[in-house]
User: Fold this.
Amino acid sequence: MSQLTITEITPAFGADVTGVEPEVPLHPDDEAALREAFDTRGLLLFRGMEGMTSSYQRYLASTVIGKSGVAGEGATGTDEEDGAYFVSNRREGANAPFGRLLFHTDMMWADQPFQVLTLFAVEVEPPSVPTNFTSAAARWDALPDDLRSRIEDLHAVHVTGQQMRADPGDADDLLKPVRSQVRSTTKPIRYEHPRTGRSLLYVSQMMSDRVVELGDADSEQLLSELFAHLYDPDAVWSHDWANGDLVMWDNLAIQHARGNVDVEGPVRTLRKVIAPRPVLDATTESPKFATGG
Ligand SMILES: [Fe+2]
Assistant:
């Protein structure tokens, strides 16, 4: 029987997990309990994980999708070789160093975005900008019947993160990933999760460009209705970071966003590990970052 304690964070999604000790391999029963919680709750929060290595972070990320064997197996001991990178307003060369990020699934523009996204608070100073989450699975289930029937057979195009949907007047703090090439994919708006089979409301404010079957005005109108439903403040949960927090979530079922991060503001350094590691062709570049415009 599992030795972990797993409690709901909100009725719709999220679970708080206690009983995981950094660097200690989990009993198979605990691994199974984590997988079950990950698939049913979509997001897991572990507090007090100070000192956790990137290889243990990678072990947990792989474990929740059933891809792992032994903790530390194949570990190299360096963050880079363990596939970790940083979201930080202080560290040299970090991703998303400043600015605001609209709700999205990472790599939503790709045919197969990676499955698990994990962030570990290496160093955060209060008041740290929270990360905001919503469940695309729970929001599909909560769709009003008339809206659901309108989108049942429609498709949307998702493009490399351009943050196109800033409201007028508040665009200045939006972080603009700049890429020399545009990538895109087309998916059903009712997207079946490849692992859990749950229906997802698969559009995002950051990356969804248009509804394939509709003209421009109707497409924008429908997307704005879907965003209002998906990002209803009552459906969003915000995590206030403390040192040692690890949050891992299903990148497809749960979308994330954040408010404006300032390079002069409190230190906010999060270590990011994803699973499985995506295979990108050699022409896919990392974005550079700019705001405004
Ligand atoms: Fe992201």
Q: What stands out?
A: Residues 59 and 120 are 13 Å apart (CA to CA).
